[in-house]
Amino acid sequence: MKTLEKATFILFFIFLLDIFIYKIWLIKIPEVFPKAYELGEITYNLALAYIASFMFYLLVTYWPQKKQKEHVYEYVNHKVELILYNFKDILELTSLTEADINFLNGKISEEDYTKQFDIHSYPRGRDYDNISDQEIINFFNRISYQGVGPVSKLLPAGSLGTDIVTWGEYLLENVNISNKLVTDILNLLPLIEAEHVTIFSKIQDSPYYYRIRSISPHSTDLSIKFLASDFIDYYGLMKILSKELNFSLNTIKQKAHSHLYLSNIGPKQ
Questions:
Q1: CA–CA distances in Å: residue 128 to residues 152, 179, 181, 189, 203
Q2: In what order do the strands lie in the sheet with 261-263?
């Protein structure tokens, strides 16, 4: 509840108490100073006016708006869940090994990759609320903007095969999806709590978003290790968001990639 709302409720109870004390006790005792009765009547009438106004506020504004906010936050929570799904996709990829990256970029054959691939080498039970900075730095050191990404784009109906998606395209699409979800939420600005507006605004204005969008799509084999520090800050915002709206990156269940993508990781069966 906002500070102003708390103050209005506190004043309501103060004035209600004032009315009971005045009518039950104070009005029956002699005046302790001149004009005390008149002063009491003034405060009594002010209290009645405030209580009447407060009840009107409850009926016309507070309760309908509270009900509306409940429905709005069902929508907001759904959008936040999708933002966290989207973010967790990248967190999952921070566990990729050097062999995974080399295979994606065609530096080793599928046969050699299959020999090196060990499903048991992938971390189990990762604490996604506490991925280390070093894991993130290592991940961004391994990939390049034009390097082959972890997914493939399905070609239009009637075409055969898939199209390569670079890491740059993948990260940009990930940012665009999250940004669209944040924009949808901020469009409901009057009904979003002020502290939540601050978080969503920080996400939308994050250096990570800016940097991803500022990279030229024609960059040739550009290292994107400079994104690591921005991503670490962005990760901090995601943790604040999940905590503020009672989510956890550990309990968020990842959805399958959209119909546009197929996973490229792991040896073919």
A1: 25, 21, 21, 30, 19
A2: 162-166, 148-154, 261-263
Report the SS3 class of residue 119.
helix
**233: region left, alpha or beta (phi > 0 left; psi from -120 to 50 alpha):** alpha
Q: Work out the angle between the directed axes of helices 227-244 and 194-204 (0-180°, nearest 10).
A: 160
Cβ atoms of 199 and 237 within 8 Å: the answer is yes
Of 3, 12, 114, residue with least CA distance to 58: 12
pLDDT digits (tens, 9 = 90+) for 189-245: 888 988 999 999 999 999 999 999 988 777 766 788 999 999 999 999 999 999 999
pLDDT of residue 5: 79
Which residue type is seen at 79?
A: K
- Phi then psi dihedrals of residue 222, to 5 deg: -75, 130
Structural contact between residues 90 and 171, judged by C-beta atoms closer than 8 angstroms: yes
Cα–Cα distance, 138 to 104 (Å, whole number): 17
User: Helix/strand/coil (H, E, C) string of 144-186?
Assistant: ECCCEEEEEEECCCCCCCEEEEEHHHHHHHHHHHHHHHHHHHH
Asked if residue 135 lies in contact with residue 123, where contact means CB atoms within 8 angstroms, the answer is no
The DSSP H or E segment spanning 106 is none
pLDDT class of 73 with cuts at 50, 70, 90: very high
* Closest among 226, 223, 199 to 210, alpha carbons compared: 226
pLDDT tens digit sequence for 49-63: 999 999 998 888 888
Residues 6+ apart with CB under 8 A from 115: none
Contacts of 116 (CB under 8 A, 6+ apart): 99, 108
